[in-house]
Amino acid sequence: MRALKGIIAVFAAFVFLAGCRPTGGYYEARGYAQGGEYRVVFNSEGCSLDPAQVAKGIDSVLVAIDNSLSGYNKGSLLSAFNRGETITPNELFLECYELSYHFYDQSEGALDVAAGPVFDVWGFGFTGDSLPSDEALEAIRTRCGMHRLLPDIRSAIAPDGTLSPTSLLREGEDTLALPVLNFNAIAQGYSCDVVAHYLKGLGVKDMLVDIGEIWCDGLSDKGRPWRVGVDRPVDGNMSPGADIAAIWQSSGGPQGLVTSGNYRKFYVRDGRKYGHTIDPRTARPAENSLLSATVVAPDAATADAVATWCMVLGPEASKELITTSPDLEALLIYDTPTGTTTWSSPDFNIAEAH
User: Fold this and answer.
1) Does 354 score more than 60 pLDDT?
2) Smaller CB count within 10 Å for the chain: N or C?
């Protein structure tokens, strides 16, 4: 990934200055990032940096991501862009946009990071007595979306390296309706990938990166492939790991694992449940029987995007997507008239079923 070259170069200089050498063994780094706790377990054998310094490096990488891509950090590049300001985008911002446009095309609009105003109107902060009207939703939908934006963000950058929101609009689009981006569908998975590439640049081969989403490679301290629990999608289950539906085991190679679901974030009005997964094509919450989608992909950003994509599609279309994509595996849990059903693709490696 292009964005990682600059980050790794910065920390390579830091490694030289630190001059420390680990003694080997597995170490765990913990901290707070992106609204929750993160956990990184790595084997320091062959690592060019002392484990304590690696932990500081991970924190620094995550701070850089937060300052670039967070919609909650008012000082981030993304927040400034969404306020209509001209920014100087870094490689993290550029690459996240490029990945997002790729998934927009692949999903035929089911994943749309420029549909931020649609997500906002359905956000779980809304407390009014009425839901958005059809007319209001249609008005919002037609004034946002990636179809209004250039696929190649680099072509919109000015000679001085700056990017204005209006420069990203396609010719003929209303410049009064400036783009608002929301990278939530891939940001956590992408963050896992960035941290993993940082660790690889230090010589780490065995690792598990958990930032709400998972990226892993190599073996655990038990000498076997990494194992990760898949939560049972029960409404209101707010404690990861408390109720496990299955335990997935990695192949021992590099893999991203992400679960998306509506069982922790939903809204009920007049007996009707509205999940937090929004279908940008309709500007409404996706209505289908899929409770959760756990996706395995070669990288965590892809797993993150596809897991959300599946939640928009529903179980049957998701099965087709997964089984026709050689690099993807998944476990889907969904409702049927006779109860909850679990489906997994042939190479989704379930070590234990619960």
Assistant:
1) yes
2) C
CA distance 29 to 9: 21
How many angstroms separate the CA atoms of 220 and 247, rounded? Answer: 15
Q: Is 75 helix (H, G, I), strand (E, B) or coil?
A: coil
Under DSSP, is residue 354 helix (H, G, I), strand (E, B) or coil?
A: coil
**Which of 78, 99, 101, 98 minimizes the C-alpha distance to 89?**
78
216 - beta bridge partners?
208, 255
Q: Which helix (H) or strand (E) holds 60?
A: helix 51-69
d(CA 324, CA 239): 33
Q: How far apart are CA 180 and CA 150, in angstroms?
A: 14
CB 170 within 8 A of CB 148: yes
- Count of beta carbons in the 10 Å neighbourhood of residue 349: 17
How many angstroms separate the CA atoms of 58 and 52, rounded? 10
Under 8 Å between Cβ of 217 and 207:
yes
The bridge status of strand 36-43 relative to strand 266-269 is unpaired
pLDDT tens-digit series, residues 124-176:
444 455 677 888 888 888 889 999 999 999 999 999 999 999 999 999 999 99
For the chain, the C-alpha Rg in angstroms (whole number) is 21
d(CA 156, CA 121): 29
Does residue 238 sit in helix, strand or coil? coil
Q: Is the pTM of this model over 0.70?
A: yes
Residue 220: both structure tokens together = 């655990």
Say how far residue 12 (Cα) sits from the centre of its chain: 26
Cβ contacts of 191 within 8 Å, gap of 6 or more: 33, 34, 62, 65, 211, 213
**Helix/strand/coil for 81:** helix
Q: How far, in Å, are 25, 127, 129, 190 from residue 109 at the CA level?
A: 45, 28, 30, 20
Convert the pLDDT of each residue in 60-94 to its tens digit.
999 999 999 999 999 999 999 999 999 999 999 99
